[in-house]
C-alpha cells in the first residue's frame, strides 16, 4: 500500500502559454496535514499552479512531487475542487460523486458507503437523486467537495471553492469544511482572493502578485483551533 503522507513540493515551477509567461518560477511546499492558502489577484496564475499540482497541466519548467513522487500524470491521492465545480449535468448528485469510483476503479460498495457519509456531513442528505441544475450554487459546491473527498485523498486542492457563493452559504460551507478538515486533517491547498478566508482558515498564506505570477510573501498564522493529538500543540 502507498504511504499516505500528503506532502506537496513544487520546485521552481513556471508556466508559459506560447510566448505568454503566465506563472513563475514559484516554489511551494505543503507538509503533512498543513492548510496553506494562496492569495492573489485575478490572473496571477493561481488556477494554473493548482492544475499543475493536480497533474492536469504540465509545467514549462520545474518539478512537482506529491507524497515524495515526482508527478508525471494525475495522482489518485489528490482531491480537486475546481473553480466552477464542473459537475456533470446529466448525472444526479450522487452519481457525480460516484464518478470517482468508475474512473479510479474503486470498490463500489465502499465508495457508496463513503459517499453517503459525506452527503450527511456536508448537509447533502436527501439530494442524492437531484440533478445539478435542481440545486443551488452552494449545494452544487457541496457535491463537488464530496466528489473531491470520496476516494479519501491525502491532499485536497480547492480553487476558490466559495468564490461564487452568497455570504450565508459561504459561511455555512466554510464551517462544515473546517469541521471535516479538523476530523480528517488532510493537506490542503486553498486558493482564494479573500484575505479574510485565507487568514481564517490557514496555517500559512502565500501571497502572489501578477505579471508573471509569483509568490511575493509568506505569512504564518497561529490559529486557535483544535488539532489532533498526534500533532501535539
Ligand atoms: P488566476 O487563477 O490566478 O485568476 P489563471 O491561472 O487562471 O489565474 O491564469 C493566469 C494567466 O494565464 C492569465 O493571464 C490567463 O489569462 C492565462 N491563461 C490561463 N490558462 C491559459 C491557457 N490555457 N492559455 C492561455 N493563457 C492562459
Ligand atoms: Mg483561477
Topology readout:
Blueprint: E1 8-17, E2 20-30, E3 35-39, H1 46-53, E4 61-66, E5 69-70, E6 78-81, H2 93-104, H3 108-121, H4 137-149, E7 155-159, H5 167-184, E8 187-192, H6 195-201, E9 204-209, E10 214-220
Parallel strand pairs: 3-8, 3-9, 6-7, 7-8
Antiparallel strand pairs: 1-2, 1-4, 4-5, 9-10
Helix pairs in contact: 2-3, 2-4
The structure holds adenosine-5'-diphosphate (ADP) and magnesium ion.
Magnesium ion binds next to helix 1.
* N-to-C SSE string, H for helix and E for strand: EEEHEEEHHHEHEHEE
CATH 4th-level superfamily of the domain at 1-74 and 192-221: P-loop containing nucleotide triphosphate hydrolases
Distance between the termini: 30 Å
Shape: globular
The CATH class of the domain at 1-74 and 192-221: Alpha Beta
CATH topology of the domain at 1-74 and 192-221: Rossmann fold
Give the total of beta strands: 10
- In percent, how helical is the residue content? 25-40%
Based on secondary structure, the structural category is alpha/beta
Q: In order across it, which strands form the biggest sheet? A: 6-7-8-3-9-10
Quickly give the CATH architecture of the domain at 1-74 and 192-221.
3-Layer(aba) Sandwich
Amino acid at each position: 500500500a502507498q504511504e499516505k503522507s500528503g506532502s506537496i513540493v513544487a520546485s521552481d515551477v513556471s508556466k508559459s502559454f506560447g510566448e505568454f509567461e503566465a506563472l513563475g518560477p514559484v516554489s511551494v511546499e505543503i507538509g503533512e496535514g498543513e492548510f496553506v492558502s494562496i492569495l492573489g489577484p485575478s490572473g496571477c496564475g493561481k488556477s494554473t499552479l493548482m492544475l499543475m499540482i493536480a497533474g492536469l497541466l504540465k509545467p514549462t519548467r520545474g518539478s512537482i512531487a506529491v507524497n515524495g513522487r515526482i508527478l508525471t500524470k494525475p495522482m489518485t491521492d489528490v482531491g480537486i475542487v475546481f473553480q466552477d465545480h464542473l459537475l456533470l449535468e446529466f448525472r444526479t448528485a450522487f452519481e457525480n460523486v460516484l464518478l470517482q469510483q468508475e474512473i479510479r476503479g474503486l470498490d463500489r460498495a465502499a465508495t457508496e458507503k463513503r459517499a453517503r457519509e459525506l452527503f450527511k456531513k456536508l448537509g447533502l442528505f436527501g439530494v442524492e437523486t437531484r440533478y445539478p441544475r435542481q440545486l443551488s450554487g452552494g449545494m452544487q459546491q457541496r457535491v463537488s467537495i464530496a466528489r473531491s473527498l470520496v476516494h479519501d485523498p491525502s491532499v485536497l486542492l480547492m480553487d476558490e471553492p466559495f468564490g461564487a457563493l452568497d455570504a450565508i452559504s459561504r459561511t455555512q460551507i466554510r464551517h462544515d469544511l473546517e469541521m471535516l478538515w479538523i476530523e480528517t486533517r488532510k493537506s490542503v491547498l486553498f486558493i482564494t482572493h479573500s484575505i479574510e478566508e485565507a487568514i481564517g482558515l490557514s496555517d500559512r498564506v502565500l501571497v502572489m502578485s501578477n505579471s508573471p505570477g509569483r509568490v511575493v510573501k509568506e505569512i504564518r498564522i497561529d490559529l486557535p483551533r483544535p488539532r489532533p493529538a498526534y500533532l501535539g500543540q
